[in-house]
Known about the structure:
Layout: E1 3-8, E2 30-31, H1 32-42, E3 47-50, E4 53-57, E5 62-66, E6 72-73, E7 76-81, H2 85-98, E8 101-104, E9 109-110, H3 113-138
Antiparallel strand pairs: 1-7, 1-8, 2-6, 3-4, 4-5, 5-7, 8-9
Amino acid sequence: xSWDISILDLPAEAKTLADIPKDFKPSPLGPRSExxxxxxxxxxxxxxxxxxxxxxDGGDFSIEFNIGRKEICDGLMLxxxxxxxxxxAAVAGLxxxxxxxxIDCQTxxxxxxxxxxxxFDQWQAFRGRAIHKxxxxxx
Length: 139
C-alpha cells in the first residue's frame, strides 16, 4: 500500500478540485524522456531502468513514479512509502520544480505541504487498520 499523488497539468487558478470545469482536459506533460529528465534534475538518483516505472530511494522513504508506457506522458502517479516529513518535502519540491500540481488521493484535493502531514497520518492509520484486519481474517 502506498500514499498516492496524481500529477497532471491542472489549472493554476483552481483553489479546489471543484473549481476545475467538468469538461477540462489536462494538457500532456510532454515526451516521457523529458519528464524523466526533469524528475532527475531534482531527484538525480531515481532509477528509470524501466522508463514507465521509476523508483527513488530516499533512505527513510521511497517514491515510485508510474509514468506509463506512452511516449507522450499525460500525467504521472507517485506512490510514496515511509518517511513522513522528508517524503512530503520531496513531493513538494518535485511539484515546484515541475511547475505542476498534484492531487492527494487520500484527501481527494490538491496536494498542499501544510496539510500533507495530516493526510499521510490518515493514510498510515488506514493502512494499519487494513493490515490488522487482513492478519485477523487469516486466523
